[in-house]
Automatic annotation (TrEMBL):
Positions of post-translational N6-(pyridoxal phosphate)lysine modification: K296
UniProt name for this protein: Aminotransferase class V-fold PLP-dependent enzyme
Family note: Belongs to the group II decarboxylase family.
GO MF annotation terms: carboxy-lyase activity; pyridoxal phosphate binding; transaminase activity
Superkingdom of source: Bacteria
Length: 480
């Protein structure tokens, strides 16, 4: 045993050293991953080894193999997609989660994991101002949270039509339609596919100029088919503008027509934790199910997403399965598999529990407000530069910028191409990381600030970098 202990000790000490190398602030480390695909394959795509090797050799080889292929999304100058970093307590708890290696499927497999999860679930509902009676599941991300919530929706809507979907499947069942807006996230489609609901049963309704689902078109769609079982998918925080649907109006409307209302709040639901932003979510608590990620704005390591369902019975009926060899309900303990698509799984609630404890209510509020302030500063300062245009001023932590080709005769296509080149050029500096998108037919650079580490110093540095890139590229274009 002493031997195993010293093996663990030497390899974990080595891992700690590598981790600290990665996490320590380094002004010169590029945010992008400059190594090419060919280089990474050449280093990592090795022949399968016949003989084993020492764990320290494995670790050192891995670290040198991935060099230049790790995007610094853990740091403060990364603004791509919607990706958060890791809070220190959450990261450390995540390490311990692997160390303890608990199977979080059942209370019996890990009593502590089950209790930590039920506690973290309660805390999340409190932070997000969701009904305390809602059930929940800790899943890999919003994708599986959609799948979990929509499975509960499928159960409830078909049960009302005297159809037992768990027993009968969908063949021969009433068709469920899904009404949502053009701004919905692609993970909704994938959940619909996985659940056998069929993508062709999704109707995308128009959004207004602010990215909010139009009330009139929802009303018409609901009234057109009053008896079709319906799921209405609303959004709290879309990827482009961070738009929030008008919950206070749309949820009562959908409920009046007996629809199940599901809310995609992958990052936007966190606005509930900020008193100055909470008004954006007014009325959201009346929905039937909600999705939010931990690995985005809460800064919990991947993979961490949460599903909440108002109708606990529908949620449980979709997942609970009692085989004779399983031990259930000992002193009313919560068995996670009754609420989750997975059975054996990582005890991922430990990291969430630690993140929330580290921040407290005030720390979560501060994280949300601070990142919004930084997003606003980046968008307004870059937007004020020559040849830059603000397409979307952040109302939370997401904004859109577009860059104009300096030629006075330039077309929108020229601006599209120029915007793409500016994004690529910023990336190539290694100073900051932004991603592009096409928004209402226009190429744009997304600004998304989710990382707890982003500081005013980072914001200054990034704005300086973009200013220099834009100035140089505009000058080049003029002389060409
Ligand atoms: C990121 C995101 C998702 C998908 O979340 P995953 O955690 O990647 O599965 C869904 N909806 C919105 C609005 C998102 O931003």
């Amino acid at each position: 045993m002493e031997d195993n202990r010293s093996t663990f000790s030497s390899v974990l000490t080595l891992a700690l050293a590598h981790a600290l190398d990665h996490l320590s602030p380094d002004d010169h480390r590029p945010v992008n991953a400059p190594a090419s695909l060919a280089t990474l394959r050449q280093r990592l795509d090795l022949p399968l080894n016949e003989a084993g090797m020492g764990p320290k050799v494995v670790l050192n080889d891995l670290v040198s193999g991935v060099d230049g292929g790790i995007i610094d999304s853990a740091g403060g100058r990364f603004y791509g997609w919607v990706i958060g970093g890791s809070l220190p307590a959450a990261l450390a708890a995540d390490w311990l989660t692997s160390t303890w290696d608990q199977n979080a499927g059942l209370f019996a497999c890990s009593p502590a994991a089950a209790v930590v999860e039920e506690t973290a679930g309660r805390w999340l509902k409190e932070l997000l101002h969701l009904p305390t009676s809602a059930s929940f599941a800790f899943v890999t991300g919003a994708q599986m949270a959609h799948t979990t919530c929509l499975a509960a929706a499928r159960h409830a809507l078909l049960a009302r039509n005297h159809w037992d979907v768990e027993q009968n499947g969908l063949s021969g069942s009433p068709t469920i339609r899904i009404l949502t807006s053009t701004e919905k996230h692609g993970t909704v489609n994938r959940a619909v596919r996985l659940l056998g609901l069929g993508e062709k049963n999704i109707t995308t309704l128009p959004a207004d100029p602010d990215g909010r689902l139009s009330e009139e078109s929802l009303r018409q769609a609901l009234e057109a088919e009053p008896t079709t079982p319906t799921i209405v998918v609303l959004q709290a925080g879309d990827l482009n503008l961070g738009a929030f649907d008008n919950f206070a109006t749309l949820i009562p409307l959908a409920k009046k027509h007996n629809a199940w209302v599901h809310v995609d709040g992958a990052f936007g639901l966190w606005a509930a934790a900020s008193p100055s932003l909470r008004h954006l979510l007014e009325g959201v608590e009346a929905a039937d199910s909600w999705v939010v990620d931990g690995h985005k704005w809460l800064n919990v390591p991947y993979d961490s997403g949460y599903a909440f369902v108002a109708d606990r019975a529908a949620h449980r009926a979709s997942f609970a399965y009692h085989a004779t060899y399983l031990t259930h309900d000992e002193n009313n303990a919560r068995d996670q598999m009754d609420w989750n698509p997975e059975f054996s799984r990582r005890a991922r609630a430990f990291a969430t529990y630690a993140a929330i404890r580290q921040l407290g209510i005030s720390g979560v509020t501060d994280l949300i407000d601070r990142t919004c302030t930084h997003a606003n500063a980046i968008v307004t300062r870059i937007g004020a530069l020559p040849n830059a245009e603000i397409l979307g001023t952040p109302q939370i932590n997401q904004g859109l910028l577009r860059f104009h080709h300096p030629n006075p005769e330039a077309t929108e296509q020229d601006h599209d191409a120029f915007t793409n080149r500016v994004i690529a050029e910023i990336l190539a500096t290694g100073e900051a990381f932004f991603t592009g998108t096409t928004w209402r037919g226009l190429r744009a650079m997304r600004v998304s600030v989710c990382n707890w580490q982003t500081s005013s110093t980072d914001v200054n540095r990034v704005c300086r970098c973009v200013s220099k890139v834009l100035e140089k590229m505009s000058a080049n274009e003029r002389t060409n």
